Amino acid sequence: MASVTLDGVGKTYPNGTEAVADVSLAIADGELLVLVGPSGCGKSTLLRMIAGLETVTSGTLKIGDGVVNTLSPQARNVAMVFQDYALYPHMTVRRNLELPLRMRKMPADEMERRVRSVADLLGLGELLDRLPKQLSGGQRQRVAMGRALVREPAVFLLDEPLSNLDAKLRVQVRAEIAELQQRTKTTMIYVTHDQVEAMTLGDRVAVMDRGRLQQVAPPAELYEHPASAFVAGFIGNPPMNLLPARLRLDGERIVVTIADQRLTLPAEGVAAKVARDGAGDQEITTGIRPEALHLVSDDEAGAALHATVEHVEWLGHETLAYVAIGTGKDAVRLVARLPGMRSLTKDDRVNLTFDPASLHLFAPDGRAISSEGTAPPLVTPRQ
Asked: pLDDT tens digit string along 187-204?
């Protein structure tokens, strides 16, 4: 097992395409870090650079205390699991597990010990004589993980390993991976575009966009204190509502204008600081989590957003109401997560209110605004 340290790591292809830019990140020994982001954000390229399958064109990459920029994949003592399993179809499970050890010319007794240990760990003992075509998708994925584990690597890399499984099986195998990491204490770096996987698996989650780290934090911090509008809009299901707004101070109150509507809020917290620091209206982006929105009656709608229902999804334990504030090209759309089954239909008029403390504010450049001012993305600084 080993730590992984990236200091200003980047990848630029010969045609000038910058896939990864200036990534600095420290992954502790025994940590499970998840890299998440939209397709094409550079997360798989970053993982392949750690594995040695892509060259590092700038910065320094360390595994443990050693710089590995120029080391071959075989010399790095890392193991990688791919989304397509990459099992040899003509080999039994046992032979697939043995293969990396045979390539190292490992003695037969030690090879048998490792294969048996990993088979017991992953529940593959009764499957050792089967071919991959005789296994379910979840069993094949466990074999792929087992083939990596028998090497006893310092770092375990997983590139979207659950993408070929159905939804129910993904939940099961995700739990198995988390339990496996807890038992083995192996350093794991897990790449996914699925934020549910990221939030349920990672000790920390690193969010990437267009080749750059946006924020690195434990899941709860990432959700509650996003460092940018991008992170806020990516994390959460449904994600945070991001609404263009104007703020201004009016005596002891703050006037927030969203679309064609004005809300008057107490002059406190971050919103008050932004309003006091500015001259006149402050153009910002406000963020409201769907679960922070609540329905109120017309009698209670003094400080509420008045909206029109456009679409409703009934999910049993909750209702997702997709609504519009305002009309025409200036209309703003958002989603409210409401408990239980609500009898809402298209074109209903509703009033939505929220606790002012639940309001997130983002500067024009997308960075979160805190009580101390505009906050930089929360990434691990270079050492």
From this structure: 999 999 988 899 999 999
Residue 381 has pLDDT above 50, yes or no: no
CA distance 208 to 42: 7
* Cα(78)–Cα(336) distance, integer angstroms: 44
**Cα–Cα dist 183/159, whole Å:** 21
Give the pLDDT score at 302.
Answer: 64
Q: Name the least confident of 47-61, 70-84, 221-235.
A: 70-84
- CB 162, CB 141: distance < 8 Å: yes
Q: What percent of the chain has pLDDT over 90?
A: 59
Which residue shows structure tokens 């934020």? 195
CA-based max dimension of the chain: 81
Of the chain, the end-to-end C-alpha distance in Å amounts to 21
Put residue 60 in one of left, alpha, beta given phi > 0 → left and psi -120 to 50 → alpha. Answer: beta
Cα 243 from Cα 258, distance rounded (Å): 7
CA 64 to each of CA 4, 6, 27, 28, 226: distance values in angstroms, whole numbers, following the listed order: 6, 11, 10, 9, 30
Residue given tokens 């997308």 in the structure block: 366
Closest CA to 98 of 156, 154, 150: 150
Alpha helices in 104-166 (DSSP H): 108-122, 137-149
Respond yes or no on whether the N-terminal peptide bond of residue 239 is cis (omega within 30° of 0). Answer: no
> Is residue 61 within 8 Å of 26, Cβ to Cβ?
no
pLDDT digits (tens, 9 = 90+) for 303-326: 789 999 999 999 999 999 999 998
